[in-house]
Write a structure and sequence with these properties.
Helix 7 crosses helix 11 and helix 14 runs antiparallel to helix 17. This protein is 71% helix and 0% strand. By secondary structure, it is mainly α. The protein is built from 17 helices and no strands. The two termini are 44 Å apart.
Length: 339
Amino acid sequence: MTDFQVPIWGYWLMGIGLAAFIVMLGMYIRKNRGFKRPLFASPYVLWLVIFTVIPCLLVAYFSFTDPAGNFTLDNFKNFWDSNFNARKAMDQEELNMYLSMGLTLEDLGLARNSINIDTLVFSLWMAFLCTAICLLLGYPAAHIMADRNFKLGPTLVILFIVPMWMNFLLRTIAMMSLLEDNGLINNVLEMVGIGRQKLLNNTAAVQLGMVYNFLPFMVFPIYNVLNKMDYKLSEAAMDLGCDHWHTFYKVTLPLSVPGVVSGITMVFMPAVTTFYISRLLGGGKISLFGDLIEAKFLSTSLQEWNVGSALSLIMMVLILLSLGLLRRVDPEGEGGGMV
């Protein structure tokens, strides 16, 4: 594989950041004459700068440069037209010769290709469906678990937490073993007389895997808000003549909005960027935006790596917009907790 060179300023930036951290740490200790509680957060700050902030800056740098390090917007043009770089790389005289022979860009395979945009739109649609299904399933589950009169609530919380102790990839592989042609579900269907179905390597399987993996991220923020809600408010509403439905609509639902928004954010963004689920459960037939980015970085062409950085930057912008929406609806972060 072709060597990928990090710009020299990237190393300088990491070195300067480390040196500044050490200097600030020494000044803090000297000013406070010892260690204070906030000081113990400093390793996390260093980790955040080196492994989050600087990599994001490098992704932005490679998005706006070519393999030679020159500024360019071609990487974003390639997002709009996936054949842009191929046309640009082709000799103009050779291209004119083919065109003079009566061939078209379609015949040469160089016509505008919207596969990048189409994949992004499809990924957004799949993520939207996953988020909607998780909300429809997760809100009732969170509401039941937060009900003080429901004795099995803590047990359900544990049942939601236990699968998360297992690795994400292992959970997806387990789902694949259930859906395969000789899997447990097909064996049961055959036993009851329905017959074996094609449950794997399709869009429905990918959607099911996404819902299975991301459902807890919808349940726990909503549960966290409902569990902290003052139940005297519901009792007061019922004392004033509201039935259970109007109490839920007028009191419980509005108070749970921060948890709902947090859950939507925590489900939608991982869903729109996922790629391993579609590879396993889709059998390589279903391509999401995460698969597209992965393919760019697995290419041996450095130009493709710059294009992959541009696609990653586009996804980061979507993430920032999502976080901005979360902060507007839930400024205190009341729905952000997992449990």
